[in-house]
Amino acid sequence: MEGKKSYSKYLKEKFPPKEDFVKRMESLVGKDEAQEFFDISYTKTPSSIRCNTLKISVEDLKTRLENYGWKLKQPFTEFPEVMIIESALKPGEIGKTKEHILGYYYVQEISSMLPMFALQPEDGDFILDLCSSPGSKTTQAAAMMKNGGIIIANEISLGRIGILNSNLERCGVANAIVTRKEGVSLCEKFLKKTQFKFDKILVDAPCSGEGTLRKSPKTLQMWNVNMIKKIAGTQRHLSEAALRLLKVGGTMIYSTCTLAPEENEMIIDNLLKHFDIKIEQLKLPLKFRSGICSWEGKELSGEVKKCLRLYPQDNNTDGFFVTKIIKLSEEER
Length: 333
Description:
By secondary structure, the protein is an alpha/beta fold. The protein is globular, with a radius of gyration of 20 Å. The relative contact order is 0.13. The termini are far apart. It contains 14 helices and 15 strands. The strands form 3 sheets. Strands 5, 6, 7, 8, 9, 10, 11, 14 and 15 form a 9-stranded mixed β-sheet that branches. It has a domain of 222 residues: 3-Layer(aba) Sandwich (Rossmann fold), CATH 3.40.50.
């Protein structure tokens, strides 16, 4: 325990939060809770994995890993493939097992699994994963679809495509087509060349990463408001382009691993103003908080209350934001 305390103290001294960031978090959750947020941000997230049911059953994987002496917890009855490793592992041990190398499980933080639990991909669906690498959510979708249907897994970075392809191959994914294109351009090309539209779309947008401080404390050094505003512009264009590519009656999940309203509720508010959509209330097995309806003097649609905010101090996870959008018609305003 003393080692953990000294490690946290070392991180706090090396990566102190910027004053503007502290003020923003205090505006979101209050001074006391903001302190809780920053305190937990200097601790490690519990190790969690997802059983890859394309290759092995949950029961068989659990038995194999328990034979290594691992203590496993399955926190969600409805999602038994999710496992938290409660025993202390040696550095790198989680990625060195035969089971990991064979693709029997994927090392994935619980918050990262939420978008696909919300999207509920099924065999026969045509799905677009617009920002796919490293493939955690794509491989999860393929398992839920039992390798049926089709997933377009898009990534703009050539280097990250290599990682994506490696993970798809390791996990035995056979229903994914990998594309390399800037997200807005891909959507526009689909519409122009094919008129094809998707049943379900995931926009797990690039973001400022405020929710990932526990694994990347350097984010505290890089954080600034101008970066948030710049990224929000990209997110706005991605979400609009993706929504145009969604079938009427289809589902789009918009998610980020940040807590900035500019990158979350304000993106959804923009979609509500310009598209005929509804926000559907999600029920997921964690403690969530409702979306923020006003920020820095700007009033947002009351519908954004249905968005879900995941704070690390509430569930001992990373921070996250997720919204389920249903397209009602092709109308744009």
